[in-house]
Amino acid sequence: MTHIVYPTADAAGAAAAPSPSIWKDCDVLGIIQNPGLGIHIYEDWRKMSIDATMNVDGTEQMGYTLVGDGGGTGLITPNTDLATAAARGISHYFTMDTDTDQHDELGLQYAGGGETGTPLLRISKGGGRVWYETIIRLDDLTTGVPSVFVGLTDEQVIGGDHIVNGGAALIATADLLGFFLKADDGDAFDCIYQTSGVTMVTALAGDENIAESTWTKLGITYDGNKTIMYWIDGVPVKAVDIDATGFPDGEEMLPSWVIKNVSDTTDITLNIGWWRAAWMYGP
């Protein structure tokens, strides 16, 4: 197996780059050399048009769909802050921006080349290993203002009202797992999962705080056997057994980001610096 050698933790830009603790055992070069082993995608938005704005209507563009139930924009811009080591691993970033109307929401999903979504990742017993990580930045973590989901959802095109009840619960008809910031929790992410039609399970509640206007990495890994691990900034924060009641075992998953403006006076901005995902097929 071929491995990628990552910079040491104190190297310039390491804080904003993919976490060695997550990716050190992913055979990225092996997948590139032999795509039959699995799938690997690293998206840093560089290949997309600078200052490109996406349609907020669910139309697939460049492999993505962006849906809003009100106003808002999705914009790709280059990172001009490369002189700052903390952001040196970020080439471009995608900005999701609501407007100031109460409960406006935006959802971005990697569509994988089709409206119904081509499975990118699949978590099932004996079905191979999975890695996922993204780096985000939220400009407002005021309690009662933003509600945010970052993680993996089922392959259906993401729709409006994917977060409901002012951020108190996620839509019940979706299979998902990831990080959920409820408006009432301010800067604290929950680690959650849910099978469609089953009550959302909070594996770790309100314990994982992030800083406002600061790049933060959120990750999920699966060992191919039974254990899901949630990561924040390359540090494991919670392990979950996929046999647990309510876990979306065997579901096809796609990277998704959702933001909701719970306040009626503040627009919410979520920046996505990059995302990376890999699935090493099982037997």
Structural class assignment = mainly beta
- Pattern of helices and strands: HHEEEEEEEEEEEEEEEEEEE
Please, what is the average pLDDT?
Answer: 82
List how many beta strands DSSP finds: 19
The biggest sheet amounts to: 9 strands, antiparallel
Overall geometry: globular
Instruction: Please report the distance between the alpha carbons of the first and last residues.
Output: 17 Å
Helical proportion, percent range:
under 10%
Rg on CA atoms, Å: 17 Å
Walk me through the structure.
The radius of gyration is 17 Å and the shape is globular. It is mainly β and 283 residues long. The protein has one domain: Jelly Rolls, CATH 2.60.120. It starts with 19 loop residues before the first helix and ends with a strand. Strand 10 (163-164) and strand 11 (169-170) form a beta hairpin. Mean pLDDT is 82; it is low at 5-12. The longest helix is centred in the first third of the chain and has 6 residues, at 28-33. The strands form 3 sheets. Strands 1, 2, 4, 5, 8, 15, 16, 17 and 19 form a 9-stranded antiparallel β-sheet that branches. The chain contains 2 helices and 19 strands.
